[in-house]
Amino acid sequence: MLPQRRIKLLVIAALTLVIMAIYLSSDARRVQNQKFYQSTVAAIEAHKQTKEPGVAAGSSAGEQRFSGNPTHGDAARPADDKMAPAIPRNGDEETEEISIAGRTKMTVPKDRNNPERQDQESGTDERVEAKTELNSILKRSPIIVFSKSYCPHSARAKSILLDKYSIVPAPYVVELDQHALGQPLQALLAENTGRRTVPNVLVSGRSIGGGDEVAALDEKDELASTLKTLGGQWVQERRTTRDFHSTKESDRLPLRNFDPFERPTARRHRQFSLGHSTAHAVKMRYIHSEERLPIPENVKVHIRSRVVTVEGPRGKLVKDLSHIAVTFGRPEKDVISIEMHHGARKGVAALRTVRTLINNLIIGVTKGFKYKMRYVYAHFPINVNIEKNAETGLYEVEIRNFLGEKYVRRITAQAGVEVATSPNVKDELVLSGNSLEGVSQSAADIQQICRVRNKDIRKFLDGLYVSERGHLLKYSRTYAIPSHENSLKLLAVGMESWVAICGLFAAVVNMILDVAQFWKERLLSWWRSKSPRSRLRYRIANAQTYEEWEEAAFELDELLSMDLWRQNPTSRHYDYRLILGRLEALMSAREDEDILTLVNLLRSGLVRNLGNITSPRLSLHAYAGTKLLIDDYITQVALSIQHVTALQTATVSEGRFDSQAKLELLHDTRQAFGRTTLLLQGGSIFGLCHLGVVKALHLQGLLPRIITGTATGALIAALVGVHTEDELLTFLNGDGIDLTAFDRQRKMRLDTGNNQWLPYTTGDNWLWTLLRRVQRYIQKGYFLDAEVLEECVRANLGDLTFEEAYARSKRILNITVATSDKGGTPNLLNYLTAPNVLIWSAAVASNASSNSLYQPVTIYCKDETGSIVPWGLSRHGSSQSGRRTEYTDGESPLSRIAELFNVNHFIVSQARPYLVPFLRSDVNLLDRRPTGQWSITRSLMRLVATEIRHRLRQLDYVGLLPQALARLLIEETIPGPNLTLVPDLSLKDFTKLFQNPDKESLAHWILKGERGTWPAISALKVRCVIEIELDKGYQVVRRRRPAENPSSVQHTMGQRRMPNEGIPRKWRGYSVDHDRDMTGLLGNFDRQQDDLNS
User: Fold this and answer.
1) Which UniProt keywords apply (predicted)?
2) Which of 7, 282, 428, 811 has a 20 to 30 A CA-CA distance from 458?
3) What's the confidence (pLDDT) of residue 495?
């Protein structure tokens, strides 16, 4: 056998012979005689012998091929080419090379006969700056366009290179008429390229001419080949053609290489990838990349802030992908799109990673994941013990006797992973769960903890290894056919055939039963399931708090794409341009600290319905609210008011914005904006829903300080008006209402049990209550028991007067009373018109609408000594109106409220049982259907209702309508803008109309009132937030003002005494002799109120 060294020598000799044979049989040896090879070698030698350090003397490989090879040089140019100076073909002519971007980019003949140029190059700083600037410009892109903005030829060249061709990176344009070194740059280009005019297009440092030359190359379809030829190794065509009108999928470019904003000016576009050398390589980016993932039917995927939540039959998984800059979308109902714009190669790869992660989540909640691990041991048997921790709920795996060790190896499985031993296979561990990450990580932890260390792994292979990966699928039934051994072979074959036939028949029957069971469950699930919209509407209708209602409303808007309507500021129902302009002006004034402009904007634009932003139509599109532009505007106005309130003021002597000027500004602005009152109308037992309305407004900070009530609404308004801010929330929960009067009446009725006319009217259901009230009407002439009502109201209110309640709660309480005489008793009772009247008597009198329903009620007041006596003004006419009182527009109670307290906006809570079925809240979308048929039906219903209302008013005007019906059917005109709230009542609630209130039913009616108010919260914020901020700012500034002179206050108090009221007005200090109207007096009332608060 030959030695190893001799074998190596023989192999080397054989390889040498093969290489020499290939060389001699090819044309490679003749390459050295070619001119191209010689010129290339000469250029390389010249590059090595250059004297200037750091400047490349030879051109790049692509440029040398262009200058030395006639097939790539002159053949590609026109005969009269003046775009670039001639490059010498031999070594006789002396040339000079200009270094651009760290390498030789231009080769021009050396000009020895121009000493001025040499002097200018050596001594002129401007020329040196131009050279430096030219070097930096040529680094920007392989294609540079030197042009002038006013030149039409320049515009033509830029249009062809920038619009018609898609080049990456884009050509860099230098406008010489706008550049600081425009003239020196143009002179330097003229010397280096031979072209003195613009445009001048350079490709890798070589000029290809101007606009006419570029247009001529484009018409001949030679521009692309010219760019590739001149660019050499730095210019490559990424895609030959791109046909926008091609129907073949293969003729189109991928979506990631398509720019949606690119203008398709030509039928065919060319895309080039132009790059510099390795040192200046341009990183490629894909304009748009997209991955799509279909969603199964039984899987729900929610994505919010890049947090993916997947729900399926097996449970719910959450994955946080906020660290990956991708965009999610829903192009179709059951498809998720994952997009990235202007992403690099790694970013595009991240798209597929995100798709795989979400796909694993979907598989986990539908099929689940299962890993099987086998025990492998050759020395000592491995014992595995599995226990579930009772506190954490996680499985703990203990591995004992590993390699005979006494040490117990423990590992805790990931959350959601179940670990168990295989019931059928010995020495097998089964890990299952919904999360692929949890199952695989648990398997890896078990395998890693059994890793053999410090031993030869070729001998010691003990451990637990993953043997199978799969899903948690339902395995079909299998039937084991017992083998029958018989001495007679024929009988055995027959028996086996019979068993096989029976097994096949059983399998077919089982398959049919399984399919039938599957479709049965599927049909039942489809029949019982609700659509996402129905589920969200159910959540809205049954919400217990406003936060639950708001969350469901946002989700429903997102499902119906109504959130896009809110984000779009444009609408024909309001002047969005005006609102947007004022919003920008307010923000600019606040940022610039321009107080004068900010104050002028506040005073000139504080109109409640500025630009029609309170239009009800804007609240009928989305469940969650109106346009976001309107919400932003209201927020900025409120912040501006807070900013003005918090400003540091100066004294009057300093001549700047002082405290008195700020106080007058807030007072006058609040006076101009107007005030809001909450009007609680009627209701019987439904009137308890008014408590829910007040509670919803109070929790959102929208409860007005002026509260007005009529009938049952007067009782609720009185209860609210006597409680302070701290007591109100406890009272609104139903804990502070005393209903013992009704309980005492019920016990008394059950104890007596004797009735002469109807012996069975002692029951407590609604039917017996109705019969009992009809009996009372027949026997006594009134419908409700005024004594019980008076006892209940007096137990809750006490003997407080209007003035005492105002001093206690700082809320303005108004109660309307219908009287029989026109000129005697006031029809509006408050702390101004009737300060000494007891509130409980006025509330009971407000319920006395006619003789046929109530017994007469007397109004009481307190005299000078504090004793309770009948009110003196009610001696001429009691509150039992025997006929309906006619009011003119100026005499109606609501008009009087507008005059006394500057009220120009009404929030009407309507709970009259005979009107609720025919009314609908102005902003409630829950019962509105989006179909056109329902819209037509609603319009017809509105037309019929308007016509009936008009005819009833005509009958009442001529006196043909009975008095009782006129009081019930004709509504009082609201003298100003208003928003109607109707409780969310069902048909079942009308069966409780004749039941007495108790603790259990009180919570029910309060929740009904809250649900009727929640849809209007957004609209009420638009209407009332500015008013509330103005009032709050005024109170804050008022408290900072120094206290007035006590003597002056005492003097005005002496002038304000009214002899017909019996006691002095202690809580206000103003004089009626001041030359001001009623509106001006309101400012004094509010200022005195602020003094009381402080």
Assistant:
1) Hydrolase, Lipid degradation, Lipid metabolism, Membrane, Ribonucleoprotein, Ribosomal protein, Transmembrane, Transmembrane helix
2) 428
3) 79
DSSP letter string over 910-966? E--TTTGGG---TT--TT---SHHHHHHHHHHHHHHHHHHHHHHHHHHHT-S-HHHH
Do the beta carbons of residue 809 and residue 722 sit within 8 Å? yes
Cβ 681 vs Cβ 911: under 8 Å: yes
Could you tell me if residue 156 is inside a domain?
yes
- Map residue 98 onto helix, strand or coil: strand
Q: Is the pLDDT of residue 419 over 90?
A: yes
CA atoms within 13 A on the CB side of 645: 21
Sign of CA pseudo-dihedral 570, 573, 577, 579: negative
- Segment (H or E) for 239: strand 235-243
pTM of full prediction above 0.85: no
Asked if 982 and 1012 touch (Cβ cutoff 8 Å), the reply is yes
Look up residue 874 and give its two tokens.
């009610």
- Using one digit for the tens of pLDDT, what is the confidence trace for 51-84? 444 433 333 333 433 333 333 333 333 334 333 3
What distance in Å separates the CA atoms of residue 36 and residue 73, rounded to the nearest whole number?
12
Give per-residue pLDDT as tens, 316-374. Answer: 999 999 888 899 998 888 899 999 888 888 888 888 999 999 999 999 999 999 999 99
- Up-side HSE of residue 51: CA atoms within 13 Å toward CB? 1
Tokens of 912: 């009259």
Domain identity same for 996 and 1010: yes
Residue 1028 near residue 702, CB atoms below 8 Å:
yes
What phi and psi, each to the nearest 5 degrees, are found at residue 508?
-65, -45
Instruction: Say if residues 1078 and 1094 touch (Cβ distance below 8 Å).
Output: no
3-state secondary structure (DSSP) of residue 636:
helix
Q: Are residues 740 and 846 in the same domain?
A: yes
Report how far residue 840's alpha carbon sits from residue 101's, in angstroms, rounded to the nearest whole number.
95
CATH number of the domain encompassing residue 857: 3.40.1090
Task: Quote the DSSP letter at residue 176.
Answer: T
Output the CA angle 519-521-522, nearest 5 degrees.
60
Q: Which pair of tokens denotes residue 720?
A: 């609210």
How far apart CA 862 and CA 408 sit, in angstroms, is 89
Q: Any idea what the CATH number is for the domain that residue 319 is in? A: 3.90.930.12
- Pairing state of beta strands 286-294 and 706-710? unpaired
Rounded Cα–Cα distance for residues 857 and 820 (Å): 13
Last residue of a domain, one of 471, 501, 536: 471
In contact, 218 and 164? CB cutoff 8 Å: yes
Tokens of 431: 């890990």
Residue that the structure tokens 């991928």 belong to:
254
Question: Helices then strands (H, E): number in the chain?
Answer: 34, 30
Residues 1028-1057, mean pLDDT to the nearest whole number: 61
d(CA 706, CA 906): 10
**Cβ burial, residue 947 (10 Å; 0-12/13-18/19+):** exposed
Does residue 88 have a cis bond before it (omega within 30 degrees)?
no
Which secondary structure element, helix H or strand E, spans residue 905, and what is its range?
Answer: strand 903-910
Q: Which domain holds residue 405?
A: 368-471
What is d(CA 640, CA 634) in angstroms, rounded to the nearest whole number? 10
- What are the CA-CA distances from residue 912 to residues 847, 881, 908, 981, 983 (Å)? 13, 20, 12, 12, 10
CB of 243 within 8 A of CB of 252? yes
**707 phi/psi in degrees, rounded to 5:** -125, 130
C-alpha neighbours within 13 Å on the C-beta side of residue 880 = 14
Closest CA relative to residue 357, chosen from 308, 311, 315:
308
CA distance 195 to 176: 14
Please give the Cα distance from 121 to 115 (Å, whole number): 10
Cα 7 to Cα 14: distance, rounded to the nearest angstrom: 11
Lowest mean per-residue pLDDT among 219-233, 823-837, 842-856, 1078-1092: 1078-1092
- H-run or E-run covering 746: helix 740-752
Same structural domain for residues 171 and 208?
A: yes
